[in-house]
Structure formats: structure tokens, C-alpha cells
Amino acid sequence: MDELDFSAKKPAAPPPRSTVQPTVRSPLYDPKLALAFFKSAGTLEQKPGGKPVFSENDTYGGFFGKPAKMYLLLEGDVGLVVGGKFLGGVKPGQVFGELSVIAGLPRSATALAKTDCRMIAMDEKQFHTALQKTPEFALMLMSIMVDRLRQNMAKLGAHAAGEAVEREAVLDRKMLADLPKALGDTRPAPFAAGKVIMSAGAVGAFMYVVTRGRVAISIGDKVVERISAGGIFGEMALVDHGARAASATAEADSELLAIGRNDLIELIRSRPEFGASLLKSIAERMQYVAQQVAKLPA
Asked: Which residue, 17, 106, 132, 234, could crosslink 207 as a Cys pair with Cβ 3.0–4.6 Å?
């Protein structure tokens, strides 16, 4: 999935094996906040009707490569096409193409300007600058992504993969070492092996960063993920105020930093790379679960 399509019109079902999933307008989306975010650091662009904004399977990076961009449509009509089939549309006030900037993912659809379009474009550097000025946008984006993640987790249900996934570190060593200071010299809390850290169904007031040890994430009696130093868990309930989707238990003696919602907003403002890393982690999980759902029997 490579766009946030919040149009009121429900799109047709995607073609087989596609993970592009436009949804109806989300009550979590605030067009005014999105506009303020893009205007703070983005660049105005125009695209004539009939021309692609980007194409399916486009990749970015490398020394001579062009940077990926995400867009806020101001005027015009953009169509989304996968495998030559029309999937849905983007209307003024909507954001699209964000996952290539957030998570470095290839384009999963072609975005075609159906009419002459005006839009605000933003690359990764501009995105980090905008996060400092409007960190609330990151929370809004996370909330929408978490909503989609929860929907697909519910579809996956008992079909979840039998082998636990080793989740990669979200924070690099430098960012992890800097985090206690960023949180006001907060000391990590110790959790002995076997200690339950959070329980499924509980209200989540904190997310957690593993600074040492290993944590097992379970749904029912089944371990689905393992998280080591630099990893993050519990962010879903913190972002959307929902119930915990899983339980977490220290699998080895561990140390964790707890981060509340206000601390998270301030972290994104003062260290936008932290917010970008968290968004990337959620986006990658969202893509992974969507791919698992796509494999389910009809």
C-alpha cells in the first residue's frame, strides 16, 4: 500500500496479490493539520493531466537516484492504477505516496494525474523538517496506519504464522543511547525474566523501548514476535487509545524505557529521526500483515 486514500467513495476490490488498500475517509484524518504540515516544509508542484506523478514499482535511493516524495493534493484528480487496473482516486486535501518516504518501499501503484493537478510535494529531508514543526501530524498518520493494522490483524486472526517473527531494531545504537537523556535522564526500568510487562485487552498508557534483554509478544498462548535491544512495542495502544492487542513478557532479564503520549510528541519534535523511525516500523508491520492477509484462502 502506497497511499492514504480518504475519499468517501469505496474503491473496487484490489487485483489479486496486491497489498494496496485504499480505505474510506478516516475519522482520524484532519485535512487542516495535513495542509499545515505540508506547507511548513513542502514544495509546490504542478502535473498536467494524463501524466504520472509516479509509477508502479518505482524505487529510490542511490548516489544518483532521485528522492522519493509524498504528496498532498491541492487541486485536480489523481487516479491510482495497479497492474493496469483502476483501483481508486485521490481528491483534494488527501495525502498519497507516503510509504516510499516513510519506509523506503517501492511504489505499489501508479498515481496518474487525470486532470491538471496542483500539489505540495515533500521528500525525506523536508519530511523530517516538517516533523519538528508539526509533530502532531506524525501521530495522526500513525493512528491511521494503526487502524489499518488492527483491521488486518483481525482478518488474520487464527491464521497468523506459526513461527514467531524476530522484529528488527527500530532505533540504532546512537539513537538508543541518546533516548534516556531526551526523556529527561529517565532510567530504564528492570524486568526480570518471566515478568509480564503488559496484558492483552488492557488500556495502553505507554509504549516501550527495549534497551537490554529480549521481550516476547504473545496473542493468547502463542508467541508471535520477539523484540531485542532497539526494538519498540506497545505503540499501537498508545497511538490510538485502544486496548492492547497482545501481551508482552520479558523472555530474558530486560530493561525498558516507558514513553507516554506527551513524551512521544516532544520526542518527535526534538528528534524527528525518532518519529520517522517509529513510522517506518509501523509501516513495515502494516505491510507484513497485509501480505499475510493477501495469502489467506478466499
From this structure: 234
What is the chain's pLDDT, residue by residue, as a tens digit (298 residues)? 344 433 333 333 343 333 444 433 456 789 999 999 999 999 999 999 999 999 999 988 766 668 899 999 999 999 999 988 998 899 999 999 998 999 888 898 999 999 999 999 999 999 999 999 999 999 999 999 898 888 888 887 766 556 778 888 999 999 999 999 999 989 999 999 999 999 999 988 899 999 999 999 998 888 989 999 999 999 999 988 889 989 999 999 999 999 999 999 999 999 999 999 999 999 988 888 888 887 787 6
Q: Same domain, yes or no, for 119 and 176?
A: no
Q: Provide the domain limits for residue 128.
A: 31-133
CB 8 within 8 A of CB 26: no
223 and 267 belong to one structural domain: yes
Q: Domain with 233 in it: what CATH number?
A: 2.60.120.10
Provide the phi-psi class of 208: left if phi over 0, else alpha when psi is between -120 and 50, else beta: beta
Could you give the angle at the alpha carbon of 57 between the alpha carbons of 55 and 61, nearest 5°? Answer: 95
